[in-house]
Amino acid sequence: DSGNIKAGLEHLTPAEQAKARLQLVLEAAAKADEALKAKERSEEEAKKRKEEDQATLVEQVKRVKEIEAIESDSFVPQTFRSSKEVKKSIEPTELQYEPVTVGVGTVDASAPEKEPPPANIPTAIKYQDDNSLAHPNLFIEKAEAEEKWFQRLIALRQERLMGSPVA
């Protein structure tokens, strides 16, 4: 196309010819740049696809190995137990413990400290002995607690009706 370009530029002045040539060069460079960017994008996409295919291939191999392990004779099926079911079965059972008294200043160096077995770990704190740190007023009957709550609710409502703000 160089002949066509020369023929198109002959009627122009040398300055206009230089300007037109510069414009054509810039357009060609822009097209070449776009082509290079498109090629780079396609190479990146191909690389990503290849990586994804390799990742899925690894997952497929892992899955096949797991299936083979399940189908083998050495696999022992076990029943599924939910952690929620285990928690529900532990909470309702109340374990009774003997109160332990520790004297101040007495240290028994011969007996190493042992952790209780996992089955004997308490799920709730129970203060049942008289030497406990909890105040005895904290332990009242359920009916008595409900009655006190009901009386308090009535008193608060009456105060509100009388116009005092309830905190």
UniProtKB/TrEMBL annotation:
InterPro entries: SRRP53 (IPR034604). Residues 33-53 have a biased composition (Basic and acidic residues). Residues 33-54, 107-128 are annotated as: Disordered. GO terms for biological process: alternative mRNA splicing, via spliceosome. One of its GO terms (cellular component) is nucleus. This is RSRC1 protein. The lineage of its organism: Eukaryota, Metazoa, Chordata, Craniata, Vertebrata. The gene is Rsrc1.
